[in-house]
Amino acid sequence: MNSFYASVEIALHPEWKGKPLAIAGKPEERHGIVVTSSYEARKMGVRTTMTIQEAMKRCPGLIVKHPDFVQYRAMSERLFQLLGQYTPLVEKASIDEGYLDMSDQLKNTRGPEVAQKIQLQIKHDLGLPCSIGIAPNKFLAKMASNMKKPLGITILRKRELKEILWPMPIGQMHGIGPKTEEQLKAMGVVTIGDLAASDSKKIAARFGIFGKRLFEHANGIDDRPVDPDAWNSYKSIGHSVTLTRDTISLSIISETFDRLSKKIAEKIRREHVVSYELTVMIRYQDWKTVTRHLSTVQPLYSQEEIKNNALKVFKKNWSGEAVRLLGITLSAFQTVGASTKQLDLFSYERDAVKEPLINLVDQLNEQFGDGALKPAAALFEEKRLGSSENERK
């Protein structure tokens, strides 16, 4: 989909059609950042991650709208229901992106004709623009879909890799982020063609399985099937622990939630998903068990966010009795692909700054043991909880 969030807002507010629009966090705070913008705004120089203040300087008539994820997810559901009319083999890759395997449907019809029909129906029924890539596999289809926006239809054949794909800068290859781009350039890999011509063993030695996949993709090889069940493969991810002794200690409870959150955060990072629903389980000393749910507008991803929300749910529902077991479960997942593409991880500016630090802390704690390095805020929280506990006693 093209500029999905902004396009949904324009579909819901026809009076904004043709006007510059930016979706941004906290419009009332002029230092909030732009998440995405309409093509009219982009022509005026408005860019993602730009502050609202800077965006309005470049585009004085800019309309600024706070994101409405409920509406975006509802529109996404309608989109994929529409796509399901063309083939049962539809794989949802993110809130606004998917793959369709049309092999069986195209025996008597040309691909571009079907693509145009899909594009026109999405525009007519939903009021949204999209770009479509046609190719023999998922990677090449993804690359093709990015080549012409908005409302583009692009065909990319394997025999065209040398002329079309290989001259492209390595940073434009799907799956390569800024960090990987920097590492590849340090190895002399500047274009996708350079990667395709590299020593595959050398790339695999440097990047592991991920490097092997990148090498194959650069050469147009991708045997991943379109999987309609992929989106729902993660129903829930959770951990629980029985405490060494029943407790009413808030510091012990907080520390337990911290450990559980760390395990879950590591798991969802490996699976490349974020969550929109958290469940806390509390089992008391008499074995009475209660579970309480929290749905969030902003995605849960980091250890800190998971812990803070779990602790909030616990404090709201705790009876004050001694606790025997605690558990946290995340569900309602979305791929990180949607987040990185349109900054659906809405605390983007904070997360982007903290990511290198989080990785460093993880590495040091793996080497020297858990707790070897922790944020000062965690120590203040432990001290505060300890003081509250003493007052309670």
UniProtKB/TrEMBL annotation:
The record marks Y5 as: Substrate discrimination. Binds 2 magnesium ions per subunit. One of its GO terms (molecular function) is damaged DNA binding. It catalyses: DNA(n) + a 2'-deoxyribonucleoside 5'-triphosphate = DNA(n+1) + diphosphate. It is found in: Cytoplasm. GO terms for cellular component: cytosol. GO terms for biological process: DNA repair; DNA-templated DNA replication; error-prone translesion synthesis; SOS response. Belongs to the DNA polymerase type-Y family. Monomer. Poorly processive, error-prone DNA polymerase involved in untargeted mutagenesis. Copies undamaged DNA at stalled replication forks, which arise in vivo from mismatched or misaligned primer ends. These misaligned primers can be extended by PolIV. Exhibits no 3'-5' exonuclease (proofreading) activity. May be involved in translesional synthesis, in conjunction with the beta clamp from PolIII. This is DNA polymerase IV. It comes from Sporolactobacillus shoreae. The gene is dinB.
